[in-house]
Design a protein that fits this description.
With about 220 residues, this protein is an alpha+beta fold. The chain is built from two helices and ten strands. The strands form two sheets. It has a five-stranded antiparallel beta sheet with strand order 1-2-9-4-7, with no helix packed on it. A five-stranded antiparallel beta sheet has the order 6-5-8-3-10, with no helix packed on it.
Length: about 220
C-alpha cells in the first residue's frame, strides 16, 4: 500500500514538473536589447543613425543644442538634425543657401521674413507644425517664452549668411550691437499661441499678410 502511495506521489510530481516546463516554453520571452554604441559625446558632429544603426529611439538623444541624427550638413547629401533652443532666444536675419524643412517637435517657433529684425512680422509655427524655407529665404526667428525643439531636414553642404540691416538700410554686425526695438512695435503674442483665441490669431495673420502685400506694392 505504501509503495502504491509513493508511486502516485512521484507521478503527481512528475506531472506538475512537466506542466511547468511546458508553460515556460510557451511564454514569450522578452527580446534582448540589441547592442548599440554609447551616445556620441559630440552629438553635433557624429550622427546617431547610419547604415549600421538605422533605428533611433528617443532615449538615445540627449537634447542639448544641436544633435546630428543623420548625415552631415557640411557635406553633400541628406541630413537630419535636432536642435534644442532655450526660451527667449533669437536668430538674426540671415539666409541659408539650401532648402530647409523645419518641424517643431516641442513649443512654438516664431518666424519672420526680411533683413530688418521686426517682431511685428513674426508668425507662429506651433508644436507639430512644419515650415519650408527655400534656399536664399531671408528670415529670423525667436522662441518666445518657452523652450523649443526642432527637427531640421535638408541637403548639404549648407552655408548661412548674416544679412541684417537696420530700418535705414545700414548693415548690422553679426554679433551686434543690434538696433533698439521701438516702443509699441513689439508684438505682444510671442507666447504660446494656444492661449490666443482663433479669432485673434486669424486677425493677426491677416494683418501681417495685408502689411506684406502693401509693402510689395510700394516697391
Amino acid at each position: 500500500m505504501e509503495t502504491l502511495r509513493l508511486a502516485r506521489a512521484l507521478l503527481l510530481l512528475a506531472a506538475v514538473w512537466l506542466s511547468a516546463t511546458s508553460a515556460l516554453a510557451q511564454t514569450p520571452q522578452p527580446r534582448p536589447a540589441p547592442a548599440r554604441p554609447a551616445l556620441a559625446t559630440d552629438q553635433a558632429s557624429t550622427p546617431i543613425v547610419d547604415s549600421a544603426h538605422p533605428i533611433m529611439q528617443i532615449d538615445e538623444v540627449s537634447m542639448k543644442g544641436d544633435t546630428l541624427v543623420y548625415g552631415d550638413p557640411t557635406k553633400p547629401g541628406v541630413y537630419v538634425m535636432r536642435r534644442q533652443i532655450a526660451a527667449n532666444q533669437t536668430t538674426r536675419p540671415h539666409f541659408d543657401n539650401q532648402d530647409r524643412w523645419i518641424t517643431v517637435l516641442k513649443g512654438t517657433l516664431w518666424i519672420g521674413k526680411g533683413d530688418v529684425y521686426s517682431p511685428d512680422k513674426l508668425l507662429p509655427v506651433r508644436e507639430g507644425g512644419v515650415a519650408y524655407l527655400h534656399a536664399n529665404t531671408h528670415y529670423f526667428t525667436t522662441t518666445g517664452t518657452s523652450e523649443v525643439i526642432l527637427q531640421i531636414n535638408g541637403a548639404g553642404p549648407v552655408k548661412s549668411t548674416h544679412t541684417e540691416v537696420d530700418a535705414k538700410g545700414q548693415p548690422v554686425p553679426e554679433n551686434g550691437p543690434y538696433p533698439v526695438i521701438a516702443a509699441g512695435s513689439r508684438r505682444p503674442t510671442q507666447a504660446d499661441p494656444d492661449l490666443i483665441d482663433p479669432d485673434q490669431q486669424d486677425a493677426l495673420e491677416r494683418e501681417a499678410y495685408a502689411k506684406k502685400q502693401a509693402e510689395a506694392k510700394a516697391k
